[in-house]
Amino acid sequence: MGSIDPDCRRVAVVTGATSGIGHWLAELLHQRGYRVALCGRRREEGEANATALDKSRETAIFIQCDVASWSSQCELFKTVWAKWSRLDVFIANAGGVERDSWYNFAGRDAQIDELPSEPSTICLEVDLRAAMYNTRLATHFMRHNPGGKGGKIIVTGSMIGVYPCATFPEYCAAKAGVHQWVKTVGPVLLQKENIAINCVMPGGIETPAFPGFSTAFLPEQLTLRSNLMAGFERYIEDTTDKTGETLEAAHDELFEWGHPGYKSGAFGQRTEKVYDPWFEMVHGERSELPAALSGPPTGERIIAVTGATGSQGGGVVNVMRKTPGWKVRAITRNPESDAAKKLVAEGVEVVQASFDDEESLRKAFNGVNAIYAVTNWWEHLFQGKSRTECGEMEERQGMTIARAAASIPTLEHYIWSTTPSAARMIKPSGRLLTPHMDYKAKVDARIKKELPRLAAMTTYLYLGYYPQNMAFFPLLKPILHPGNGQYIQTVPSKPDAKILLSGDMSVNPGIWARQVLRTGLKAYGMYANVALEKWTFQQMMDEWSVITGKNGVYMQTTSEAWTKLWGDAGAELAAQFQFGEMCDPWEETEDHISPEGLGIDRDEVVGFRGTIEGLKHMF
């Protein structure tokens, strides 16, 4: 291997490098092949540290600097540039706690005209203002790096900038400001300058800067030096453009803090969004951030509906396209299908996307304010997949849709069509499996765990039994007995077993979607049953007979017999009906929002009777 041109070796600057964390970082970077400038106030210690790294001063130097001073920082950067003519990594590590007590307990007995003395704010100046100075100056010099602009800035934060500690109020405030600074400027610096800025937040750690941690903390409550260095290394070596991140360095683990989520949903989301006319007014040019608003928001909002040519998605399209203030974007795999062409003829925007292609979904969701997401387990079954394979495919597609939705900056509400899970609700876990329900519920759990920002604006809709099944689904359609003229519905469930009825699928899903969107914040994170009725199978058959004028008979069979007759489809539905006999899967809990809570007009909802009356000609 040939020798490396010394002028090409990367350059790093570390502030607060005369002892403790800064000294450790200087050693780490030098071991990684960086030329390192150590910065601090104490010349003797700083010179000793630099000499220990390289007596020749070719690859390690000390520069005395007061980081709270703009002019002193300018001299620091100019000296580094004059020495090596590049800057790749800047670590803003200098810090310290307050020098005065902000509580002023000593002034309790002071007279009213004996005002407190002006406190020192050196902690704020060194911990926060200096980091802001560092960023501004590092950006200037990194723009001139040979081979193109760019670099990395890493700031030392603190976990008591997240969890306040009453002992150090000024320090807590300063570090909280540092964390917010990093998160705020990170996206813009990466977009415009190719500079990533991130923050590593240790807990208590023994350093000369503030000794005594080993007395005040148990060993397992202290951040290990090795773990802290691993946190910095994560960003030093990063090649994936991480920026604006805060990383906790706990005892021996690292935790990404991510975004805090939106407790007020769309309201909070809009609060943080960049409005580019203001950005330009303050900073002289537009942010160029993909999520920025380029101008005033329009009055019309867009809801994207997946499975828009299907039964459930079609019901959402039917209602939402008639809802003032909303425009529907129908998402379909095949925009050339007759159903898709019918939507286009009715004035609905139709966009192609695949549940197996996240990028196509991102493009289809671009600019939308709401998404109604539904997947189809049964489609995979009828294509010859096993019940478990269908579930795995549905979970994979459900998460692909969710990840695409989570990337949409304009999104304000995500509605996920799901079901209760026998695998989770029937104990012991796994005793009864209903894959067409279980894997949807897995998506619920994964959204909450893996996509917390999306979960904060998600409503989960529970769909039950479709009355249309009696007209279109062979397994549940009453069959004419040729010998006696009676219609027989054969089902593997007790005649008195109750089941949730979702009513007319061409209307009701849309009613619930519309009301969820109108309810907004109160519907976030909640489940809702798309139904007003729970009937027994016998009730349904009796009512079917009255409406159709045909003599209908409900006949219970066994799961085994039904499976022999209908194969995997029969086994799956038999398991669902068994689930319904063992408990009430759709029982409302504290996690549910009621129809009244959503403002559902019961007179608008089409129940079992209305659905069968509309399909009477089919029987």
Automatic annotation (TrEMBL):
PROSITE patterns (UniProt xref): ADH_SHORT (PS00061)
CDD domains associated with the record: NmrA_like_SDR_a
Alphabetical UniProt keywords: NADP
One Gene Ontology cellular component annotation held by this UniProt entry: nucleus
InterPro entries membership: NAD(P)-bd_dom_sf, NmrA-like, NmrA-like_oxidored, Sc_DH/Rdtase_CS, SDR_fam
Residue span(s) of domain NmrA-like: 302-579
Family: Belongs to the NmrA-type oxidoreductase family.
Official protein name in the record: NAD(P)-binding protein
Lineage: Eukaryota, Fungi, Dikarya, Ascomycota, Pezizomycotina
